[in-house]
Amino acid sequence: MDALDKAGRTGQILKEQPVYQGPIFDLVKQTIKTPDGLTVDRDLIKHGDAVTILAITDDDQVVVNTEYRVGLNAETISLPAGLINAGEAPLAAATRELQEETGYIAHDSQVMTAITSSEGFTSETVNLILTHIDPTEHGERHFDADEFVNNQLVPLRQVIDLLRAGKIRSAQAVCALTWYLNFLREA
């Protein structure tokens, strides 16, 4: 069997013990029998799925956010993003999150791809969404109680420069931008 043919085989969870339950993620210890027959102990962060939104105007302006992120203890540059609510489809979540964080209204949205941020220890999948906006069509923003997001329209060329300079470091934003530039943007 070719190594690529093995992709998608699942392990058997023999034991799972809760360690921590929080508002955004849970931590569990698992004992797993892998598809290759090994028995291993692993820690898993169970995290809800999310969306990251590349929102672009007809004249190539991109909605860029800055927001405080605890993992770096700093404000970071990224794209609008958020968690998918229970029972919500990725495109509906992207429309809602874009409106909540930026006030912009999503049009002609599509899922570009779905990525895993670090499958070695978390179950999170992030759907990368491309949407189009009209900058004159702007509603009210609605932040969560513990969030404040700054955003602005930035020319795509400048966003590419920020990416190249390492100023956009969010894996989801890097993937969304490079997916768009490599596979969807017309030459």
What can be said about this structure in brief?
The protein has helices at residues 90-102, 156-164, 171-184; strands at 12-21, 25-33, 39-47, 50-56, 61-69, 74-78, 81-83, 107-116, 125-132, 149-155.
Largest sheet: number of strands, sense, barrel closure:
4 strands, mixed
Based on CA inertia axes, which overall geometry fits? globular
Topology, number of strands? 10
State mean pLDDT (0 to 100 scale): 93
Physical arrangement of strands within the biggest beta sheet: 7-4-9-8
**Percentage of residues in strands:** 35-45%
Protein structure class: alpha+beta
The parts where pLDDT drops under 50 for at least 5 residues are none
Order of helices and strands: EEEEEEEHEEEHH
The percent of residues in helical segments reads: 10-25%
How much is the radius of gyration in Å? 19 Å
Report, as a whole number of angstroms, the end-to-end distance: 39 Å
Describe this structure in words.
The chain has helices at 90-102, 156-164, 171-184, and strands at residues 12-21, 25-33, 39-47, 50-56, 61-69, 74-78, 81-83, 107-116, 125-132, 149-155. It is α+β, with helices and mostly antiparallel strands and 187 residues long. A hairpin with a 5-residue loop joins strand 2 and strand 3 (39-47). The termini are far apart.
Secondary structure blueprint with pairings:
Blueprint: E1 12-21, E2 25-33, E3 39-47, E4 50-56, E5 61-69, E6 74-78, E7 81-83, H1 90-102, E8 107-116, E9 125-132, E10 149-155, H2 156-164, H3 171-184
Parallel strand pairs: 4-9
Antiparallel strand pairs: 1-2, 2-3, 4-7, 5-6, 5-10, 8-9
Give me some keywords for this one.
3-stranded antiparallel sheet; single chain; alpha+beta; 3 helices; 187 residues
